[in-house]
Specification:
- The protein is built from 2 helices and 9 strands.
- The protein is mainly β.
- The radius of gyration is 15 Å and the shape is globular.
- 15% of the residues are buried.
């Protein structure tokens, strides 16, 4: 994950570290039936709505991608496949818990 901002265009917060903790096996999954506010556990501007989550990430093919996810109008789960860092451990490769 290169960048992740949550909120309104003129009032947002950095949530990249929160999202990195939610990556499992190279995927970030955001269920459609959970608000972003609940998923992230933060509210950038209490008593306001219309927030969105903008994520910039590196895909497995090394290309960068941007996605904007609205707070409440998702019709499907969001599943992002991220490029993961690999390290060599003897004859085996191991995925690290580091994401670009």
């Amino acid at each position: 994950l290169a960048e992740a901002r949550y909120g309104l265009a003129d009032c947002d917060i950095d949530v990249v570290s929160l999202l990195k903790m939610k990556v499992h096996n190279g995927y970030l999954r955001i269920p459609k039936d959970v608000t972003l506010r609940s998923y992230l556990g933060v509210d950038p501007l209490p008593n306001h709505g219309g927030f969105s989550l903008k994520i910039t990430y590196r895909k497995p093919d090394e290309k960068m991608a941007d996605v904007v996810i609205p707070e409440n109008t998702r019709k499907a789960d969001v599943n992002l496949e991220l490029k993961t860092a690999k390290t060599s451990v003897g004859p085996f490769e191991k995925e690290e818990n580091k994401f670009n």
